[in-house]
Amino acid sequence: MNRVRVLCVDDNEEILWALGLHFSHTPDITIVGSLSSLAGLAAALNETKPDILVLDLDMPGKSPLEAMRELDGSGAATRTIVFSGHLRRELIERAMDAGAWGYVSKNDGEDALVTAIRAVMAGEIAWSPEVQSVLALR
Length: 138
Known about the structure:
alpha/beta, single chain
């Protein structure tokens, strides 16, 4: 079985810990790294070569949206899924314009993130249920 390689970036250490724990019990997903800031993102992407980047949008320092634009324009095979507590339509649309393949509400939890990872790996755009409600897709 090919395991999906995931790099997680979130400034909340508890979120990173919870994702690591959840993914450790998910047979088709493995965490190849986690970062609490965007400072080392380029190096981590180069070193770990993840299939999926799980990225929080509310972090200090460099703009996560700018980091996604750079990744999208780099030709890298890594696909980004936003995992955020911020669910404004405008922000979701900006993330998708920056190259995100999915947007998952932290309120929808880790299972919704796993579902999104699998959908994105199948070539689909993925929105969690709460995000779909904001976008009125249901």
